[in-house]
Design a protein that fits this description.
- The protein has 343 residues and is mostly helical.
- The protein has a domain at 44-236 and 312-338.
- Helices cover 79% and strands 0% of the residues.
- The protein is built from 16 helices and no strands.
- It has helices at 2-24, 29-37, 41-50, 52-66, 75-91, 97-109, 113-140, 142-145, 153-182, 184-195, 200-215, 223-250, 261-271, 281-294, 298-327, 331-341.
- Helix 4 (52-66) crosses helix 5.
- The protein is globular.
Length: 343
């Protein structure tokens, strides 16, 4: 087990360095620092002040899933779960924060772990759907903005590929979750067959978790719930687009709001790579989006990416550490919690 963990960690670190190499290749640091010095302080301050809104909108959306199981879940606990989850993801490889987030909330609210984990799967599916929908609208509307915003044909082709891939992945996950929910008993029987070689105590615990997990998907039972949650997901991601829009203004690069949709989509692809703190993947795809979509100077793209990545990590971790301090928890306790529950 330790050897397997070491190999996985080594691959993740290697992946980070590969992406960082392409991100920092041929950078003129004198130019990068010149762009740093020219940042508009007003917009930069807005970026920092408004960043917690991202955590708040995610918490509000999460509440919509949780309320079907428990009324009166504290908003602070959902906000804290998001902040702590992102803090763990920023600090350790493997996206452990995705596991810590539901475990933290389940512990604070006395809810079943498997159920809360099921809601996280739903969130991620709709994150992909929301950004693929916005990207689809952007690509379909190209004739309307062709005169004011020119998209590189190669970049448009690449976006179309990633958009299709995202839709395919999200659809597969959605279909799988629907099968789990509507064929719950049959699914549990299949799971129990796979668990037979394990000790009886393990089998019982894992079956209980599987049952709770499927219960977390119950919101799919109502078409109205799906539509409302989809709209809330669009609000979350339009808020993120707005946040990056401020970044472009901070660097004196005025850009139509909707023109940033493909860039944000690419950063989502980069952020999904399981490197600690999104280092490498986010940076490379951010630079790629700026240079290929908007024909920006590579040094400006590097400068903007470093700033926005640093703000995301620093502000998130400061909020996360403040909550951990208030609750008397340590980051390594949460890491251990996530590793215990991860496969």
């Amino acid at each position: 087990m330790m050897k397997k963990h070491a190999v996985r960690l080594g691959l993740i670190i290697l992946l980070s360095f590969v992406f960082l190499f392409f991100f920092l290749r041929s950078v003129d640091w004198q130019e990068v620092f010149r762009y740093f010095a020219g940042v508009n302080i007003f917009y930069f301050a807005l970026i920092i002040l408004l960043f917690p809104m991202h955590l708040a909108t995610r918490a509000a959306r999460w509440h919509f899933l949780l309320r079907h199981k428990k009324k009166g879940v504290r908003f602070f606990n959902m906000f804290a779960g998001n902040a702590i989850g992102f803090t763990v993801t920023n600090s350790f490889p493997g996206r452990l924060g995705e596991i810590v987030k539901p475990l933290y909330l389940a512990q604070r609210e006395g809810m079943r772990k498997g159920f809360v984990m099921g809601t996280i799967i739903v969130e991620r599916i709709f994150d992909i759907f929301a950004m693929c929908f916005l990207l689809g609208v952007f690509l379909l509307a190209r004739p309307l903005y062709a005169s004011i915003f020119h998209v590189n044909p190669e970049a448009a082709s690449s976006l179309l590929f990633w958009g299709k891939a995202g839709v395919a992945i999200a659809t597969a996950l959605l279909f799988f979750c629907l099968l789990l929910y509507f064929f719950k008993k049959r699914t549990l029987r299949v799971v129990s067959l796979f668990l037979k070689p394990l000790p009886a105590s393990w089998t019982k615990r894992l079956l209980t978790l599987a049952d709770e997990f499927i219960d977390g998907l119950k919101f799919f039972h109502s078409v109205g719930n799906v539509v409302v949650f989809a709209m809330m997901s669009l609000v979350v991601w339009l808020g993120i687009v707005f946040y990056y829009w401020l970044l472009f203004f901070a660097f004196h690069v005025p850009m139509p709001f909707f023109a940033l949709v493909p860039y944000v989509f690419l950063t989502m692809v980069g952020a999904s790579i399981p490197t600690p703190g999104m280092v490498g993947g986010f940076d490379y795809f951010s630079k790629l989006g700026m240079t290929s979509l908007y024909h920006m100077d590579a040094n400006l793209a590097v400068s903007m990416t470093i700033v926005i990545h640093a703000v995301q990590i620093i502000v998130t971790c400061l909020i996360g550490y403040a909550i951990l301090c208030k609750e008397g928890l340590s980051l390594f306790q949460l890491k251990k919690m996530g590793e215990t529950e991860s496969p």
